[in-house]
Amino acid sequence: MDFAKAILNIRTALRISQQDLAAELDVSYATVNRWENGRTMPNKMTLSVIKNYCTRHHLEFDYKKETNEQ
User: Which domains does the chain have, with CATH numbers?
Assistant: First the structure.
């Protein structure tokens, strides 16, 4: 699953807005919006925060980083 879809699934499961998720993750609303629109990706530290957030809320974070290795 791509990251944008994974973030949307988290919000949908918890029934929260982008602004609410941003506050929970200590990022800006614009950051969550860019993630969901596939324009940016979080850094490793923020990705870890997202994984921990999902664990606390008993959600599966099924994002798998795609590798373009040949």
Answer: 3-56 (1.10.260.40)
